[in-house]
Amino acid sequence: MKSFIKKHLSKLLVGLVAILALWVVILVTPINGYLSLSGIYNLPIPEEAATYSIDPEKGYYLEKMSEGVYFVSSHSHNTMFIEAKESVIVIDALPSLGEKYLNAIRTVTDKPVNHIIYSHNHNDHIGAAHIFGDNIEIIAHDITAQKLAHAKDPNRPIPTITFENDTILKIGGRTIELAYYGAAHSPGNIAIYLPDEKVLCVIDIAFPKWVPVHEFAVAEDLEAYFGIYEKILAYDFTHFVGGHAHLGSYQDIVDQRNYVFDIKKSAAEVFATVDFAGLGEKAAGIPNQYVGVNFGLNKMACDCEKKVVDKWGEKLAGVDVFTRSHCLKMIFNEATE
Fold first, then answer.
1. Domains defined for the chain, CATH in brackets
2. Could you read off the pLDDT tens digit of each residue along the chain, which spans 337 residues?
3. pTM of the model
């Protein structure tokens, strides 16, 4: 063995250097980014969370939830529409679908779209509202209307009918309940419920079979965000439309609630162990104190993340991608609340 090593030492060293050089190239060049996109660094996606198969010629996925009530999805966003007696009621207007939204509706009915209900004001959900023309009623919360009046975006027409708290719509034989539970995701973000069909739509809160994206989907009010799960689960529904990920069930929302509350608990436990006096003494010896602060925050986020990923990594997709951002947001919240 020794003689073999001596004989081939130079070749072994060259090979080792080549491997190290390749690894450095992968780490510091765009190659690493492309490898990350391939998913090789990530946990496998649970089978039931696999993305919808979308016909590229159609550009959308369509599923019937109840008689005359349809779920429609692009690759990144989803929403729903409702066929009434003489017209169609749409929820939001996704730029990721655009005119394909109309195509999806036309596969079901040739009735005109007479009403749009805005879930909230964000462009990624209502930025294609202009495709429905000017002769249409647009229903939204007062806050959403105020935000859109300020935005002056021709692609997001200002609502024509608004409400402050709760309201019930009766349109063409359909009953639609609208409710506002605070700025959980964004001020003006509403719950849309069809009691007869047991379909609930609340956008950008729960992501069925996946986890929320960055920082609880950039939730503006964490107290309202955690509080809204109780409100959602008080509804009697069999189908849940969340704006992203999959068409959900009641159990999917239970799972999502349990996941986010596990993050809240884990962040609180990690934060409670921090010796801030000791950290202050250590930081005093660091020339750039922000480096120390950043290290400490990320260490806490990593400790918080590990507990959650160990429990949920095989149950929800994306746990290993966004849990750390949720943990970091909760740790900031623990430090300031």
1. 52-246 (3.60.15.10), 263-336 (no CATH)
2. 556 555 556 766 777 777 776 666 555 565 544 455 455 568 899 999 998 999 999 999 999 999 999 999 999 999 999 999 999 999 999 999 999 999 999 999 999 999 999 999 999 999 999 999 999 999 999 999 999 999 999 999 999 999 998 999 999 999 999 999 999 999 999 999 999 999 999 999 999 999 999 999 999 999 999 999 999 999 999 999 999 999 999 999 999 999 999 999 999 999 998 776 666 666 666 777 777 778 888 889 999 999 999 999 999 999 999 999 999 999 999 888 7
3. 0.88
Smallest CA-to-CA distance from 316 within 219, 265, 245 is with: 245
Nearest Cα neighbor of 241 from 192, 201, 196, 189 is 201
Closest residue by Cα to residue 96 from 117, 70, 125, 135: 125
